């Protein structure tokens, strides 16, 4: 029992240490201890964007795909780009005829209303209800027949 506890503790320590040991593609660790030791005032500054445009770099990899990063890779001729980071809206488009905002002021159905304008409490046409009831009875009969067949097989 003692060896199991020791192995579990070792696995826990390795799981907690792995973000500090494993590296990102750029070679830096996933987490650094200095990130936990920052004063609270520095954390707020890193979250709030500055008024200065951000610099991004673009380059083509060996397969010809464009890559983008905020740090230029070593040994490549990356092109610097200035990017505005305060974009928070999209250009609106004009909708085709028929898709514009339509009036949503339809009279609400009131079931307590006793005049000729009130609708029945169904979405089916009233003249189709008897046909629908016949279909339901037929469906119930086929379910009953299937149940009888299953009971006969299981005997």
* Helix amount: 25-40%
β-strand amount: 5-15%
Radius of gyration: 34 Å
Give the uncertain stretches in residue-range form. Answer: none
Mean pLDDT: 76
Protein structure class: alpha+beta
Written as H for each helix and E for each strand, in order along the chain, the element string is HHHEEEH
What does this structure look like?
- The two termini are 53 Å apart.
- The protein has helices spanning 2-21, 33-36, 40-47, 129-154; strands spanning 54-60, 66-69, 79-83.
- 37% of the residues lie in helices and 10% in strands.
- Among the domains are: 1-47, no CATH class; 49-89, no CATH class.
- Strands 2-1-3 form a 3-stranded antiparallel β-sheet, with no helix packed on it.
- With 155 residues, it is of the alpha+beta class.
- The mean pLDDT is 76.
- It is flat, with a radius of gyration of 34 Å.
- It is built from 4 helices and 3 strands, in the order H-H-H-E-E-E-H.
Features:
10% strand; 155 residues; alpha+beta
Overview in brief:
The protein is α+β, with helices and mostly antiparallel strands. The protein has helices at residues 2-21, 33-36, 40-47, 129-154; strands spanning 54-60, 66-69, 79-83.
Compile the SSE list and pairings.
Layout: H1 2-21, H2 33-36, H3 40-47, E1 54-60, E2 66-69, E3 79-83, H4 129-154
Antiparallel strand pairs: 1-2, 1-3
